Amino acid sequence: MEIPIADWGKAKARREIAQSNFELERLNVAQERVNFEQSILLKVRQFDLVRDQVSRALRLRSIP
């Protein structure tokens, strides 16, 4: 069994990489949430536009 006396910063580097990966994943999750919310808002706006178009078409259709 070997126990290194000095690892020349390997453990610190591994911790920093793990911390960076964690932060990157946290930011990715936050961005995905923003993208999802924007997608929902866009779909709602599109639905409202189509509803208004249908309403106008029905009104025009009823004009003699």
Describe the structure concisely:
This protein is mainly alpha-helical. It is built from 1 helix and no strands.
Give your account of this protein's structure.
There is one protein chain. This protein has 64 residues and is mainly alpha-helical. It has one helix spanning 10-62. The longest helix is centred in the middle third of the chain and has 53 residues, at 10-62. The mean pLDDT is 92.
Provide tags for this entry.
64 residues, mainly alpha, 1 helix, rod-shaped
List the helices and strands and how they pair.
Layout: H1 10-62
Proportion in β-strands: under 5%
Task: List segments where confidence is low: pLDDT < 50 over at least 5 consecutive residues.
Answer: none
The topology string of helices and strands comes to H
The total of beta strands comes to 0
* Biggest sheet character: none
User: For the terminal residues, how far apart are their CA atoms?
Assistant: 95 Å
SS field, number of helical segments: 1
Given the C-alpha coordinates, what overall shape results?
rod-shaped
* Secondary-structure-derived class: mainly alpha
Radius of gyration: 28 Å
User: If you average the pLDDT, what whole number results?
Assistant: 92
Question: Could you estimate the helical fraction of the residues in percent?
Answer: over 70%
